[in-house]
């Protein structure tokens, strides 16, 4: 079956994760992650991102797809934990639309992490 997929899936997944925020950590993986706090959700996102990078670097497309899905899920968990909504991010992306990446990055305030 060839079902069209679009960005709405991210909004839907965000809503599911958000709905699990106060669920029993023994019955919901999302609740279990969220119960550990922002530091742990950020660490888990980082672990998944590294796994994604490894699959890309080794040319393993099938595993890159799987790990990419994991990265997106854990990014959304991190957003829920930090109180960020997809609309916040979509608004920022829309603001950047039509602006050169070089120009946009140069306009950002500089800090020690960039």
Automatic annotation (TrEMBL):
Q: Name one Pfam family in it.
A: PRA-PH
Q: Which GO terms describe its biological process?
A: L-histidine biosynthetic process
| An MF annotation (GO) of this entry | phosphoribosyl-ATP diphosphatase activity
Question: Recorded E.C. number(s)?
Answer: 3.6.1.31
Q: Where in the cell is it found?
A: Cytoplasm
Its pathway is: Amino-acid biosynthesis; L-histidine biosynthesis; L-histidine from 5-phospho-alpha-D-ribose 1-diphosphate: step 2/9
Taking the first listed entry, what is the main subcellular location of this protein, grouped into a coarse class?
Answer: cytoplasm
Stored InterPro entries: HisE, PRib-ATP_PPHydrolase-like
Keywords noted in UniProt: Amino-acid biosynthesis, ATP-binding, Cytoplasm, Histidine biosynthesis, Hydrolase, Nucleotide-binding
Q: Which family does it belong to?
A: Belongs to the PRA-PH family.
**Record protein name field:** Phosphoribosyl-ATP pyrophosphatase
Which organism is this entry from? Answer: Commensalibacter papalotli
Q: Provide the taxonomic classification.
A: Bacteria, Pseudomonadati, Pseudomonadota, Alphaproteobacteria, Acetobacterales
């Amino acid at each position: 079956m060839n079902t069209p997929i679009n960005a709405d899936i991210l909004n839907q997944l965000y809503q599911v994760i958000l709905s699990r925020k106060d669920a029993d950590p023994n019955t919901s993986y999302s609740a279990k992650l969220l119960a550990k706090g922002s530091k742990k959700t950020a660490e888990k996102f980082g672990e998944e991102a590294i796994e994604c990078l490894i699959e890309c670097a080794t040319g393993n497309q099938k595993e890159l797809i799987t790990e990419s899905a994991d990265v997106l899920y854990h990014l959304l968990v991190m957003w829920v934990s930090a109180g960020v909504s997809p609309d916040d991010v979509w608004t920022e992306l829309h603001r950047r639309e039509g602006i050169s990446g070089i120009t946009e990055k140069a306009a950002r305030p500089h800090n020690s992490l960039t």
